[in-house]
Amino acid sequence: MSVPGMSTPETPDPNAGTNDPNSSPAPAPVEPRGRSPLALVVVAVVVAGMLYFGFHMARPSGPARPLGVAYASPAPDFTLQSLDGRDMKLSDLRGKAVLLNFWATWCAPCKIEMPWFIELQNQYGSQGLQIVGVAMDDSSKDDIAKFAKDMGVNYPVLLGKEAVGDAYGGVPALPESFFIGRDGKIVDKIIGLRGRADIEDSIKKALNTSGGSSTASAATSQN
Predict the structure, then answer these.
(1) Alpha-carbon distances of 198 from 116, 120, 158, 184, 189, rounded to whole Å
(2) Domains detected in the chain
(3) Would the pLDDT of 15 be above 80?
């Protein structure tokens, strides 16, 4: 009821204080929705997979790399410089069983198997085993030498080259080891980290081969 002489209170205008008569009230803020834990797990797995394959599969651009060296085929010969500055040729080891190990100073699995190599060199060296390490990273010669000394390496370490890696199939992962018989032919290969017993079994395969010179002498005596 209105009383003469008195003003009726007005209902507050929600648009009061705005200059635009056609403006509407500001919307209430929307509360952010929580992310699904499953979606986060899927994203993490996808990102991890991309990083893994990007790290292991990325290679310098260039011509197609050869396939891995076949078993029973001659090990590709090479000449590389050792840490003491001397040239070492693989074919000079003919008559010995050779464990040719491609590794790098940054390779964590390589650090695990190196103490095994040291023990195996001591154990089978007198039977004709020669382990040869080929460093396939960009560290300086001094850094590689310090690393080998700290690890107590008791076998030759050579400074690797990309061309040598290519000759052995590109060395797609480290560590990678080739087991070469006394006749210079590959009898086994291990990619990645394996147990000490597996490495020892492959060494025995290489030791149980006949050297090229003795085979040739036997063939001559039969004629």
Answers:
(1) 11, 12, 24, 21, 11
(2) 79-211 (3.40.30.10)
(3) no
